[in-house]
Amino acid sequence: MARYGMVIDLRKCRGCRGCTAVCAVENNVPVDRTGEEAGEQLARWAAGELDYYNMRVLTATVYGQIRSIPMPCMHCDNAPCIAVCPVKASYKRKDGIVVIDKYKCIGCRLCLKACPYQARYIRKVPVKGEPKGVAGKCEFCAHLVDKGEKTMCSRSCHSGAIKFGDLDDPNSEVSQLLKQNAKKVKRLKPEYKTSPRVYYITF
4Fe-4S ferredoxin-type domain: which residues (predicted)? Predict the structure, then answer.
């Protein structure tokens, strides 16, 4: 069984935010938490004022330069969101992808508070018949992975910064990248001991 993960090369990311746009379209990411109308939200996104919430792109100053940091869900091996869910709506698939059963979710927000990466949100607008007010997050495009495809963000990244694949396959692109860049690989917030499966190649 594959164990999926992601490698994001910060040296290649241009901050174009294309990953957030294709993610929003593919996964029907709804109006953001402020309840803005979609038109206003899209206008603000185009102006670079806000991100969709399945895939966010943050900015940081690194060595005096502004850099972009794409941030999907980290799909942690020790996911605190799973541990706190009272109805077991959040769970890990056999391939390691952390998903939400939206028909079990009661919208209690405990998972939002437990996630140290702020990767979750509440879907205020029902999507494709889903219940209103349930939690949402990046699910590594599990519906595409099940068909043998890769995540939409990795497929559409023109700079080649985002790579997705099987971490347990030593010949996979992600495994090779981790091996070749071992001294520059970081994971976010190691102090939480969540063992995220999103790795960053740093400068």
Answer: 4-34, 64-95, 96-125
